[in-house]
Amino acid sequence: MQVACTKNPEDNVAKTVSKIREAAHKGAQIVCLQELFSSLYFCDVEDYENFKLAEAIPGPTTDLFQKLAAELGVVIIASLFEKRAEGLYHNTTAVIDADGAYLGKYRKMHIPDDPGYYEKFYFTPGDLGYKVFQTKFAKIGVLICWDQWYPEGARITSLMGAEILFFPTAIGWSMHQDEETNQDQYNAWQTIQRSHAVANGVHVVSVNRVGHEVDMKFWGGSFVANPFGKILFKGSHEAEEVTVTNIDLKKSDYYRTHWPFLRDRRIDSYAPITKRYIDEG
Asked: Rounded CA gap, 15 and 265, in Å?
């Protein structure tokens, strides 16, 4: 589901609850929310007041979603601004099983610092490592937005047994750039994530927000790709949408057998990947 947000967190949460109910009514089993769904994307500025948006995890929002998940029988993947301790904050996603059980959380590992995305001001990099969660319907891996550009995170999470990779996201276009640049950026974003599906033989689900916020137009375009990178669903760039896409987990075995990338990995040769850069000297 992809939605637009307002300045009022209570309104955003209420809308999200309504959309989760809609998804469940349509037959959804796993519902993934966009990154930082309960607020505007506040990282476009460095403002100490925005720290007041953070909450504990588990906390009030996860409590609400635990009850909702149990009522509807759905898994909920909820991206939140976590206050871990005084002065210590993370960009975190909580995973709640279909019986309402809190399964744990993943803290965003890669933190950007770019014009319009001043996340290093707010978030400490994740220290829980990469995570998988055994839900009622699938073993899932969760990575968050900027993580999606790094093949290492997708690979490690897949090697831990993830059957589906979920990417809660908040990314958009500057209101001051041309349409060709917009399309190049979206295509690059989609392509890198489709490549994770292909390289790891898993489904990828990427969920972005829509709407205009200050100088940013969030480009939506949420999508689901199968283990060969085929797009099973693509959302619009403008509209709020709640869509259910059927995923056949057996496809991973088929594609991994016929395109055996995991079998042919040369793990004995990959030690240099842990270096920042490989200098000739």
From this structure: 45
Q: Is 22 a residue of the active site?
A: no
Distance (Å, rounded) from C-alpha 185 to C-alpha 190? 9
Using one digit for the tens of pLDDT, what is the confidence trace for 67-116?
999 999 999 999 999 999 999 999 999 999 999 999 999 999 999 999 99
Catalytic residue, from 15, 83, 145, 163: name it: 145
Residue closest to 91 by CA, chosen among 75, 76, 112, 74: 112
* H-assigned helices in the chain: 9-25, 60-72, 151-159, 179-200, 251-258
Would you say how long the chain is, in residues?
Answer: 281
35 is catalytic: yes
pTM of this prediction?
0.97
pLDDT at 281: 62
Of 43, 273, 25, which is closest to residue 171 (Cα–Cα)? Answer: 43
Of 5, 32, 35, 105, the catalytic one is 35
Nearest to 17 by CA among 38, 35, 36: 38
Distance of CA 76 to the CA centre of its chain: 12
DSSP string, 168-233: E---EEETTS-HHHHHHHHHHHHHHHHHHHHHHT-EEEEE--EEEETTEEEE---EEE-TT--EEE
All structural domains of the chain: 9-264 (3.60.110.10)
H or E segment at 139?
strand 139-142
Tokens 């790891």 map to which residue?
A: 200
Find all residues with CB under 8 Å of 225, minimum gap 6, and list them.
Answer: 193, 194, 197, 203, 204, 231, 232
For the chain, helix, strand, coil in percent to 5 are 35, 25, 40
What is the 8-class DSSP label of residue 163?
S
